[in-house]
Design goal:
A hairpin with a 7-residue loop joins β8 and β9. This protein is elongated. The strands form four sheets. Strands 2-3-4-5-9-8 form a six-stranded antiparallel β-sheet, with helices on one face. Strands 1-11-10-6-7 form a five-stranded antiparallel β-sheet. It has two domains: 226 residues, Phosphatase 2c, domain 1 (4-Layer Sandwich); 155 residues, no CATH class. It has ten helices and 18 strands.
Length: 386
């Protein structure tokens, strides 16, 4: 199974920093994903520091092979209580899961997570871990196995308390049941939603329930979806050996998944080898060359300029742009395993005699693209140089 994990957040209105912090890491060699959602006391910079420190330390402990139970207990027993409000300085949820469907979760102070199989809620068994330092503090430890298609939903109390004091939600806000009802309705309409889209829907719901749609608390939603991986291939740059153009064109054409081309020269050689018409679009947006079309190919863009802009959009989490780079970003984010065929031949369209190793520019861009997809968006990226 592939673990599709993503989050969406909103700061408390009027604050410059997020009081919640979400961090996740994929360890591809272990088939394992680790994540922590922490909610710092209050809001603003102080809450941000508390949440970031808590989440980062927890993740670091677990990555250093400390047992999740011991890591959580260490933090639970160390976090002080605010003297004025009588609340923990930070709460947290830890997620440790692998490709085989084994899941461990530890929760301390955050709303209980939701486990959905289709639109049906599954209740996971748990045990308590008592604090040795604070008599009223304890954690829930879950250990269970999921099936393909299952989802886990984690939120901060900015979601479950959204709408508090508003008509219809005056007593307790949206609550866990309200969130569950919303998720069932949303997934009945669009069951194939990826984790990012579903997390955004949860965040937007909490904002909608806020007075004047201005968050009265930090809002965070994280979604983990266990499913079959979605694969795509991106071909950018002509092959090094022209005599092997036909071989690589057929390998690209036979790939089992969706296909994209980045580069005019690349598109021309593939159109020639695959004997297909290439039509250049006329709608140029954002200062980038327009999209092109080719039968059997899902997306065709210009190369270096579009890749550069797409990397920027991925770095700042902007998935809304209407230009060619925005189309490329949405294509990439719609897949889990991304195979990049990177041509190492000289692109005569961009060749500069004073810079004979022009292909190094493309190599640098491809590496940056792979890095941001892997580290920030937890995609699996494979680069094949041809």
């Amino acid at each position: 199974m592939f673990i599709d994990i993503s989050s969406a957040q909103e700061k408390k209105y009027g604050q410059n920093a997020f009081g919640d912090y979400f961090i996740s890491r994929r360890h591809a060699e272990e088939g394992r994903v680790l994540a922590v959602l922490s909610d710092g006391l209050g809001s603003g910079v102080k809450a941000s520091i508390l949440a970031r420190m808590t989440a980062t330390m927890l993740l670091g402990f677990i990555e250093e092979d400390m047992d999740i139970r011991d890591a959580a207990a260490l933090i639970m027993n160390s976090l002080p209580v605010c003297r004025v409000r009588g609340l923990n300085y930070a709460t947290f949820s830890i997620i440790d899961c692998d490709d085989e469907g084994r899941v461990r979760v530890v929760e301390e102070g955050n709303p209980d997570f939701l486990w959905l199989r289709g639109t049906r809620q599954i209740l996971a068994p748990y045990s308590f871990i008592e604090s040795s330092s604070f008599p009223d503090r304890r954690m829930k430890l879950y250990n269970f196995e999921v099936l393909e298609g299952d989802r886990l939903i984690f939120v901060s109390d900015g979601v479950t308390q959204a709408g508090l004091g508003q008509p219809g939600y005056a007593n307790c806000g949206l609550g866990r049941q309200g969130l569950l009802d919303f998720l069932k309705t949303r997934l009945e309409r669009q069951y194939t939603l990826d984790s990012l889209r579903l997390a955004i829907h949860i965040r937007d719901l909490a904002l909608k329930l806020s007075p004047n749609q201005k968050a009265v608390d930090d809002i965070s939603a994280a979604v983990v979806h266990f499913r079959n991986p979605r694969r795509c291939v991106v071909f950018t740059g002509p092959p090094f050996e022209k005599r092997r153009d036909s071989y690589y064109a057929q390998a690209f054409n036979n790939f089992k998944g969706r296909k994209a081309i980045c580069g005019g020269t690349t598109a021309i050689f593939l159109a020639r080898e695959l004997q297909r018409d290439l039509a250049v679009g006329g709608d140029s947006r954002g200062g980038l060359p327009p999209l092109s079309t080719m039968d059997g190919i899902d997306l065709v863009t210009e190369g270096l300029l579009t890749l550069t802009r797409a990397i920027h959009y991925l770095e700042i989490d902007d998935f809304t742009q209407a230009d060619a780079a925005g189309s490329l970003v949405r294509f990439l984010m719609g897949h889990d395993i991304i195979h990049i065929m990177e041509g190492t031949g000289i692109n005569l369209a961009n060749f500069d005699p004073s810079r004979p190793f022009d292909f190094e520019i493309r190599r640098t861009l491809v590496k940056k693209l792979a890095d941001v997809l892997q580290t920030k968006h937890l995609r699996s990226v494979r680069i094949q140089r041809v």
